[in-house]
Design a protein that fits this description.
alpha+beta; four-stranded mixed β-sheet; two-stranded antiparallel sheet; 21 helices; 54% helix
């Protein structure tokens, strides 16, 4: 054993660089949730809405859906349309579904005919949100039942699922839901009853002054409200569709130039909170100043990292559009293009490109595609030309479709036939591509063909 001195150079990532890479790997939906959690914990981070600047109490529901109630299947995304449905048929189907859903939860033998008549009327009076915008005296006049009977039916109906159904308005709907959840918090009830407008405008100071609570606590109340459902009947009677939320939207100008937009307008934008910046400048306690300093550094880092993420994704998209011009303009085939080549053009590592396109979709005039699928390794041909892996897979599929089903091609035979087409690949590579496109091996294909012959 002996000791010796060596000189070497290493590149180590700081914690901020690691966090930036983690943010880069998030899709827009995940990023929005991450920033909302940071916003609740960091008083120096202020959220500004991208929608209209002023709201009244009735407009809160629209703001709520666009800013907080974001289901995984977001209607703003790109999707495949199913078979068209007549609006009138949809309304009839919707009513039937709600009627069955409500009656299945009730012990019908407990209700006399006059109460069942009232329940049936109340079901048909529900609007698309699941609310009843009718006063009890008005319902009594329309049904001929007493107000006591109507109130009794409403009490039972408001206990049913989905929580919040049969409420008079959004405020009562949310109050019903927190009651079912067992959240007996007077501050939460007060915010829902009197401060939904302040919530929609982001005026947390009005809430903190009215209830004498901290800003962090007010944010937690707002976050809790965001988990409630403002539209209990959303989705009833509608055909299910699978949605994709594109992270990048590419459009073309009339002059043929591409426009790239990060699809995050539905997310909140963030800036430093002037109120707490002023408080930080005036604070005298060292511990409190140190707390504000750490939160300020974190807020500045996040704002910078999010903006840097946007620039990186746009830069990558620009390179993709240049490399795959034929595909995007004329729906041609994808050209061979690797992440390493893109990384070299941007002077970054390949892992950065991989993180930037991870789980992200790009929407363009002809459709929507996973950004990762726009990259493929080049396969050299005997004539010096290059094709991508998708082209090789297409060749394999064509050869298998045209083979003699009695004597399927082995992977070695496929490699030989591809070599005649100018694609020189090993048997193992052919097997990998074949498995990628879901084609079984030659033995399994022959067994399947024999079984089909016996059945027929």
């Amino acid at each position: 054993m002996k000791q010796k001195l060596t000189v070497e150079q290493r590149q180590l990532l700081s914690q901020n660089q690691i966090s930036s890479l983690e943010l880069l790997a998030l899709c827009n939906y995940e990023l929005n949730r991450f920033m909302e959690n940071e916003y609740m914990e960091n008083p120096l981070l202020e959220q500004t809405n991208t929608g209209t600047e002023s709201y009244d109490q009735e407009e809160y529901q629209t703001w709520y859906r666009s800013n907080y109630c974001k289901p995984l299947t977001n209607s703003a995304g790109f999707y495949e349309e199913g078979i068209g449905t007549n609006d009138q048929d949809l309304e009839i189907s919707n009513t039937k579904n709600i009627h069955s859903h409500v009656y299945d939860q009730l012990a019908l033998d407990r209700y006399p005919d006059k109460e069942l008549k009232v329940i049936d009327f109340l079901i048909h009076s529900l609007d698309s949100n699941g609310f009843i915008d009718l006063e009890v005296p008005e319902i009594a006049q329309l049904t001929g039942a007493s107000e006591r009977v109507i109130e009794k039916c409403l009490i039972d109906l408001k206990k049913l699922e989905p929580a919040g159904i049969f409420a008079k308005n959004l405020e009562e709907c949310l109050l019903i839901q927190i009651g079912i959840l067992g959240l007996d918090d007077e501050n939460l009830k007060y915010i829902i009853s009197h401060h939904l407008t302040d919530v929609s405008q982001g005026k947390l100071s009005s809430i903190t002054r009215a209830l004498d609570i901290s800003s962090a606590q007010a944010r937690r109340y707002v976050a809790l409200i965001s988990t409630l459902n403002p539209r209990p009947l959303q989705g009833f009677g509608e055909s299910q569709k699978q949605y994709i939320i594109p992270d990048v939207i590419v459009t073309m100008d009339t002059d043929g130039k591409w426009n790239i937009e990060i699809n995050d307008n539905w997310c909140g934008s963030y800036q430093l909170n002037d109120y707490y910046l002023q408080m930080m400048a005036e604070v005298k306690e060292p511990e409190l100043f140190e707390y504000f300093k750490k939160k300020l550094e974190r807020a500045r880092f996040l704002i910078h990292a999010v903006e840097q993420r946007r620039k990186t994704i746009i830069q990558i998209t620009n390179i993709i559009l240049e490399e795959q011009e034929e595909f995007f303009r004329y729906s041609g085939k994808l050209k061979p293009c690797t992440m390493t080549q893109t990384a070299e053009r941007m002077s970054v590592s390949t892992s950065t490109i991989s993180r930037a396109v991870k789980d992200k979709y790009l929407q363009f005039p002809a459709g929507c595609i996973l950004m990762k699928n726009l990259f493929s390794a080049p396969v050299p041909g005997n004539d010096g030309s290059l094709i991508n892996s998708d082209g090789v897979k297409q060749f394999i599929r064509e050869l298998v479709d045209g083979e003699n089903k009695e004597k399927p091609y082995s992977d070695s035979k496929l490699a030989e036939l591809l070599g005649k087409k100018g694609v020189d690949l090993s048997r193992r590579v052919i097997a990998k591509y074949r498995e990628d496109i879901g084609i079984p091996g030659s033995f399994d294909r022959k067994v399947k063909n024999d079984i089909n012959k016996r059945v027929n």
